[in-house]
Amino acid sequence: MTRSIVVLLAAMLMTNLSLHAQRAPEEFLLKDGEKKIPVLLVGTFHFGYPGLDSHKTSEEDKIDVLSPQRQKEIRELVDYIARFKPTKIVVEAGKNTGYLMRRYERWQAGTYDLRRKEVDQLAFPLMKRFGLDTLYGCDAPSLVWSLMNSADSTVLKPIAGRIYAAESPEDPMSDRYFEWYDYTDRYALESTMLETFLDMNSEHHIKTMHGHYIIDDFKTDGFEGADGLAMNWYSRNLRIFRRIQMIDADQDDRIMVLFGAGHMAILMQQFEASPEYELVPFHSLSKLK
User: Fold this and answer.
1) Does residue 257 sit within a domain?
2) 126 closest CA partner among 284, 278, 287, 258
């Protein structure tokens, strides 16, 4: 076979492949110059250590975010997040954020000192920097919580009670998770706030943290563990995502979501799959100015 014939066949093959190339889904989902709304997920530990999670940080490992050194580090962290240039900030609070806005206004007026709260320390300075006048509270109760606290919950309560009372075998992996949590507490104590947030918001950390939900109490003899997780934790986070969807945002907006780090895995999955949003990785802000 001569060289010219080989070249001709190769050209014909490439032409055939190009004619049958897979079209990107965006060609179908985004029309007439439409673009996705950028979203930055900022997973955080709770600065006031309310002790509501299964892991309790020991007193000696707690960070005092009001100390002069930590305040300096928080300013560095705020500067880093500010590279995203948010136009809307979502926080872990109920839909009525009037009490937060009053707190913000008092801070602006010089009659309120910022407390050991992530909204105070992170959201308020970003609001001030970018001239924002609203906080969007998008926390939500789970479906099972709503049903069990409804007027007529006599049918559901026994069912849910059996699900959450189901026993599961002891899982040594759960103890290893708590060892890891203790280590991350010590790491945070010895690191800057920015270093801690970069680690906590890495994809590997987020997915590893979510893994704790699918061991231990999840491994009941039947489907009770799976049902309990779906009705409570998954339901709550899907409702949170739905509340974010309800925000009146357009393609010029940039949405920052400040929630406890445990929420990030499920929220990340939804934003990555959504045709409406473009997830901006936390670590990628290091490339921006």
Assistant:
1) yes
2) 258
Bridge partner list, 86: none
Place of tokens 């909204």: 119
Separation of alpha carbons 283 and 182, rounded Å: 24
The count of domains in the chain is 1
Which residue bears the tokens 């779906």? 230
Tell me the C-alpha distance between 288 and 11, whole Å. Answer: 42
Res. 135: pLDDT tops 70: yes
15 located within any domain: no
The pTM (predicted TM-score) of the whole model is: 0.87
Q: Are 135 and 97 in contact (CB under 8 A)?
A: yes
* 253 within some domain: yes
Say which DSSP state 37 is in.
Answer: E
Domain residues for 217? 37-48+61-287
Q: Does residue 149 lie within any of the structural domains?
A: yes
Backbone phi, then psi, for 44, in 5-degree steps?
A: -140, 160
Q: What is the SS3 assignment for 280?
A: strand
